[in-house]
Fold this sequence. Notes:
181 residues, alpha+beta
Amino acid sequence: MNTGYAKVVLALGSNLGERNDTLSEAVADLVDPPEVRLLAVSPVVQTKAVGGPLGQPDFLNMVVTVETSLPPLELLEHCQAVENKHHRVREVRWGPRTLDVDIITYGDLRSDDPLLTLPHPRAATRAFVLYPWSLIEPAATLNGERISTLAARAADFDDLAPFDGFGDFDGMPTAGAVEER
């Protein structure tokens, strides 16, 4: 039995339903088993959808770091079970979803396994992953480069906005949202 723990970076996103509530509940669900321990939680950012069908609602994104004794594929199964608990539907690649949980890194493991490629093959170009991660681990690197540098170079960097807790239903303003003029 593996009793060692690996440090893991997980990226979470939601653009359907009560996005902020879903992210909060998903963090709790992810660290529910004793084999997964929470280390840090990033602030939430709001972003435009990257890839997939046009006209999607904005995403809320965050990053958490955990340590786990679960092997990588078991962690993937756990993450997918949490997605399913939050009614994740996989009909369209990169389509709208209630919850997306991606394993960005698993320790120093490198893998070309089609089920779980590590580090995540697109993470180095996605500010919606890199920027929140940099807020909790400013010195972190990915593929030998500081994640804050990668975030600033990412095509979606200018679309990031801090999330203030308002406008939390399908990316549309709700009660309490202030409209800019």
